[in-house]
Amino acid sequence: MSTILLEQAKQYLDVFHDEDDAKLQLLLDGAEDEACQFVGRESLSILVDETTALLPASITTGVMILLQASYQASPEDALKLRKAAEIKLTPYRIGWGI
Length: 98
Description:
This protein is mainly alpha-helical and 98 residues long. The chain has one domain (6-91). It has 4 helices and no strands. Helix 2 (21-39) packs across helix 3 (57-71). It is globular.
């Protein structure tokens, strides 16, 4: 289950219907998993701010961009969006292997 709520993702994508909810939830879960793999963490929940109960905005934005790449983008645009997501997620990356 995602740390980011489906309603938050739908708002980001400007989706106003419920027909794609199951698909969007699957893609959101996949986007969070992709972000976890990129930053080298098992879960994004470790990054949740205890005082606000929210992820850092750049993490949320990175996941949303990955979601957008899967849900709305052409193949050419998806590559550009993934690069943009990496820029947002890179400061949280651990275990670079260097």
